[in-house]
Structures are given as C-alpha cells and as structure tokens.
Amino acid sequence: MQPRVLIVCDRAAERDTIRVLVGTMGCQWVLASGIEEALALVSRERTSAALLELPGTISDPVKLDQGLREFLVRFPGRVMVLTDESPTPMISELISKYSIPFVQRDRLAADLWPRLESMVYPQPGIRRITKVARLLLDTFLEPLPAGIRGSQSGTRQLVYETESLTADMAFERSPDSTRTALLGQIMRNEPKIPVNGVPVVLKSRKGPLGLKMTNEVGEFYFEFQNERSVNLEIEVSPNDWVLLISPPLDPFGGREEETLSEFRPGDTSTIYASKPQGKRGR
C-alpha cells in the first residue's frame, strides 16, 4: 500500500510543488486548506505523515497550539512544518517548543524530499516503480547521422523515448565552469495530449535538485552545480512517471553501466539510433 501524505497548505503554487515532489517519492497525497479540515480528514483516512503550513497571522494562538499538539499525538515523529525564511516569533516558538522538523518555502525542492523520506519510508531502499525511458541518442558516444551537424563544444545532446513521449535534452557546460545548464523539451507521441504544465523533477544521488513545469511547447530549463550524473522524472499522467537516466556527464568519467545500476528501478535496455527529425524551439 502506498504511503499517504497530508498536505496542509493554502498557497496554490507551493501546494502543487509539494504534490509533485510527494508523487516522485511514490506517495499518494491528500490536501487540506487548514488544520481543522486536516484533522477531520485524518479521522477518516489512513495517513502516513503530515506537512503543515502554519498561518502567518494567528488569530487564536491557543487553538493553533491545541491543533498542532493533536497532530503530533496522531503522527509522532511524522509531522513537518512549512515556514518562511524568517518565521514569525510565534511560529518559531511552536517549532522550538515541540522540536518539529521544518522546511523553508524557498528550499522545497532541495530539502523536502530527504526529510520526508525518512518519515514515510523508515526502511531504506523502498521506492516506487518507475518506467525507464530508452536512450536513443548520445552525441558524445555515437556519431550523428549523415546530414546532421555535430554538437557544439561543451554541449551534449541526449534523446530518450517511451511509448508515451520523446524527450530531447542538451547539457551545456564550459570547461572551466562549475555549473551545468540543461535545456529540454518533451514531445507527446499522441499529438492531441498537451505538453504544457508537465512536472519535471531533476535529481542527483542525494535527492532533488529542482522542479520545473514545461511551457506551452514542452520546454523546461535547469541550471545546477556540476554532477557526475543526474536523472529526471517526468509525470506523463497522474501517478504515472517516466525516469530518464543520464550517462556520466563527464566525458572522461567512468562507465555508463555503473550509473545505470545506481538509478535503475527495473530492467531496461539502452538503444542508440538516429535523432528524430524536427526542430526544437528555444
């Protein structure tokens, strides 16, 4: 049975970010706009952990304290608080009083995943099963087909495919730079399905590096500190995720098989073929 996380947050943008990150962990989620609604939900539905946004303006401190204590009793060691970078004195006092773990709004993509993981997956190694995309093209390993120009210095193109989509990505890194830029585009194999607003999560071995939503033409962009390898998870439909595993991003770094074995949730194969035709917008 999948773990279920209760999300108590009334800000739509942050609520959607949390929902996507929780989904990448293989968890179900249930939403509530406030503590009273959340307490009513947990009395009816089995829940593994709770992420609470405490209100910035507190009209009844005693009632808030009581509601928070009830959560801590129902979910011992499995409650986390969402805070601003500089929480109010009242919020800081509650966090300190009950020793509640917290995550800042501006660090959701970096901090939520590893902190919530220990709550919903107390046994290490438990993961949801993800479909793995096939690697069709790597310009650092295979010559481009006749008629297609080679990639620019410092740019590596990877093309992946599943039964539902094709993903075209370009990694750019200057020789003396400590950062990598990633420009990607997803293309649906079924033209009638829209490509905008698709969640894309970038991960390293330590956890998520960022979350982006595709634009109207299916593009997304990340910039991150250099990693030997990364992987991306794309939500092709609700609770249906595709995993894209990168080869070693250092052209002189180790074997590709080592990278695949670290991320692979199931058996898959790597296939090299020609680049799909068509231009990609920027």
What is shown here, in short?
The protein contains 6 helices and 15 strands. It is α/β, with parallel strands linked by helices and 282 residues long.
Overview of the molecule:
- By secondary structure, the protein is an alpha/beta fold.
- The protein folds into 2 domains: 4-120, Rossmann fold; 131-263, Sandwich (Immunoglobulin-like), CATH 2.60.40.10.
- It has helices at residues 12-24, 35-42, 61-74, 89-98, 108-120, 256-263; strands spanning 4-8, 28-32, 49-53, 79-83, 102-104, 131-132, 134-138, 155-161, 165-172, 179-188, 199-204, 207-213, 219-225, 231-237, 240-245.
- The strands form 3 sheets. It has a 5-stranded parallel sheet, sandwiched between helices. Strands 6-15-14-11-12 form a 5-stranded mixed sheet.
- α4 (89-98) links the parallel β4 (79-83) and β5.
- α1 crosses α5 (108-120).
- The longest helix has 14 residues, at 61-74.
- The chain starts with a strand and ends in a 19-residue tail after the last helix.
